[in-house]
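Milestone 3.1: sequence recovery, worked example.
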């Protein structure tokens, strides 16, 4: 059953679902060593960033997209833990810097993939910290992005439903930010820096309410990403 078909049912039961999640939450131990992650495109290693022990996630220059040869889109650049996550909460501290060879379109793309299956189909939410402090209001509005693969990169979502899957949040390149994503069936909410209100709300996760899989770190072209304090709580 698709998220669109059960949207009204989800709205009607959202309070009940929230209470059930709080009552049955079960922590999932995070990976503590880089060898515990599966990798696609990226590399991962332990690193100290701004005095904090973290994982550094990087990608090779030849994996960057070339806007002169292809349409820019979101891809499965992941370091992930192959757990069985369906509904629950994911929290992590992230920081992004631009690599020395970052292309002009780089924005410090950094975030989380979730419900990652063996075919690398997954949902994701990420930040563009270079947009947040821009003088261009359109860029500021694109500080946060939801996407899903296959088939629902930012460029398609921006065309099909402008502004619906993006929003503004105050973040900075090179600084730690806290991300918390709450997931329940077709819904996902992103909270940044422990704000009481979400920065992004999605009611129609594209892969449907039954999709499940791993949780992982995500970056894209020109980003050196730093991740620490991963915590996954499953309903």
């Amino acid at each position: 059953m698709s998220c669109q078909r059960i949207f009204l049912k989800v709205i009607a039961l959202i309070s009940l679902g929230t209470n059930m999640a709080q009552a049955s939450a079960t922590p999932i131990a995070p990976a503590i060593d880089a060898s515990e992650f599966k990798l696609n495109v990226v590399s991962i290693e332990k690193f100290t960033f701004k005095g904090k022990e973290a994982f550094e996630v990087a990608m090779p220059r030849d994996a960057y997209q070339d806007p002169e040869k292809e349409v820019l889109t979101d891809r499965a650049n992941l370091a992930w833990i192959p757990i069985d996550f369906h509904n629950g909460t994911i929290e992590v501290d992230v920081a992004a810097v631009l690599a020395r060879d970052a292309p002009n379109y780089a924005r410090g793309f950094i975030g989380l993939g979730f419900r990652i299956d063996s075919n690398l189909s997954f949902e994701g939410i990420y930040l563009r910290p270079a947009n947040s402090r821009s003088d261009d209001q359109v860029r500021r509005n694109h500080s946060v992005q939801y996407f899903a693969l296959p088939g629902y990169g930012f460029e398609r979502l921006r065309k099909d439903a402008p502004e619906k899957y993006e929003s503004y949040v105050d973040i900075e390149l090179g600084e730690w930010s806290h991300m918390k994503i709450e997931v329940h069936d077709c819904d996902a909410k992103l909270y940044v820096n422990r704000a009481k209100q979400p920065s992004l709300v999605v009611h129609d996760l594209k892969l449907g309410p039954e999709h499940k899989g791993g949780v992982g770190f995500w970056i894209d072209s020109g980003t050196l990403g730093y991740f620490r304090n991963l915590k996954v709580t499953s309903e």
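The chain has four helices and 15 strands. The chain has one domain: 7-234.
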